[in-house]
UniProtKB/TrEMBL annotation:
Ranges for the PPR repeats: 27-61, 62-96, 132-166
UniProt cross-references to Pfam families, sorted A to Z: PPR, PPR_2
Record-linked Gene3D superfamilies: Tetratricopeptide repeat domain
PANTHER family named among the record's database cross-references: OS03G0856100 PROTEIN, OS12G0638900 PROTEIN
Name the UniProt record assigns to this protein: Pentacotripeptide-repeat region of PRORP domain-containing protein
Keywords of this entry: Repeat
InterPro entries: PPR_rpt, TPR-like_helical_dom_sf
Highest rank taxon of the organism: Eukaryota
Length: 187
């Protein structure tokens, strides 16, 4: 846990290797901790490799595992991998939460995949997973980058209807989307 807290990803990997050498099976918690250390240190590739290793060793992932892996995808701007993880998660019966979908939304937004972002936000609604300001802001950002000002406007309206707080970053992102779309009168 100290490795995760202080971002000592190499030490976490060495400890995992020592466990293998001692023929000690790492638990889901141990994998999550090592993956988190890697992700925190910006070593997203290692975090995803550890998740693959979990699968190979038949260690069952949980929501935290997927959250950490999706956070790694977010940092590495791996939107395709993030979507695959969401599908894998649903296929294994692991429930996602706001953190899960938030990381996937941000990964897709960074990849300018506005359509995928909107699908994820819609999927959250169908599954009863609450969206927050950060998720909507990322969705508006994806629309802004792709010139989808109408969709950005729709997302702003949806935020108001659902009572989701709108912050300065959200407003600035929406204004930028409207301006990019030549809709200066909406600002």
């Amino acid at each position: 846990n100290a490795c995760r807290k202080f971002g000592h990803w190499q030490k976490a990997l060495h400890l995992m290797e020592d466990m293998r050498g001692a023929r000690v099976t790492a638990s889901t918690f141990i994998y999550n901790t090592a993956m988190s250390a890697c992700t925190k240190a910006g070593q997203w590739q290692w975090a995803l490799r550890l998740m693959e290793d979990m699968h190979d060793k038949r260690v069952v992932p949980d929501t935290v595992t997927y959250n950490v892996a999706l956070s790694a995808c977010q940092k590495g701007e791996q939107w395709e991998r993030a979507l695959q993880l969401i599908e894998d998660m649903r296929g294994t019966g692991v429930s996602g939460d706001t953190i899960t979908y938030g990381a996937a939304v941000i990964a897709c937004a960074k990849g300018e995949q506005w359509c995928r972002v909107l699908q994820l936000v819609e999927q959250m609604g169908h599954l009863g997973v609450p969206a927050n300001t950060g998720i909507y802001t990322a969705a508006i950002m994806a629309c802004q980058k792709s010139g989808q000002w109408q969709r950005a406007l729709w997302l702003m309206k949806e935020m108001h209807e659902k009572g989701i707080p709108v912050d300065t970053i959200t407003y600035n992102t929406a204004i930028s989307a409207y301006q990019k779309g030549g809709q200066w009168q909406r600002t």
